[in-house]
Amino acid sequence: MKTNLIILLVGLVLVFSGCGTKTENSETATTESAIAERSAKLKKQRAKIEAERQMELDKLLASTPYYEKPDGILVYYKAEVDPAYIGGEKALNRFLKENLKFPADAEDEGLEGTVYVDFVVSKTGEVSDATATNYTYSETDNQFIMEALRVVNLMPDWAPGSQNGDEVNVKFSLPITFVMR
Fold this sequence. Notes:
The protein is an alpha+beta fold.
């Protein structure tokens, strides 16, 4: 009798623990599926915006390689040698990871998106004139825009771009993606 009761209790524990695991596995699979779906949608929207931005840049470059700021400073849309974050792409990604904060309200609402920040890398490497120019969704929250601008304005100097061997001011665009993990 005692043995039957122990077997019954062990059986119940196994049944209930198995049910919990199935529920947890189901919830995990649903969450992973939702994340994959959001990621695919974000990737598709980002590719569309990048194609549109490239067409706009090609049109600008067909007419002139640079523009003049109100203070008379020339800024190239594209230089022979583009500016580069010192340390390369890995260092830039590390900087963004260490400094970018996902806005709490956006996280609570389940918002994600990409903000394109255009800025000028001066002939001395200084980052200036940061503006948000595109976003992946109309629902991309203003908090993403403000955070992306905040972080770009924190950036250390870059290696400047050059044209005909001379360092020049170059407009640069950086997509910053906010994704919930």
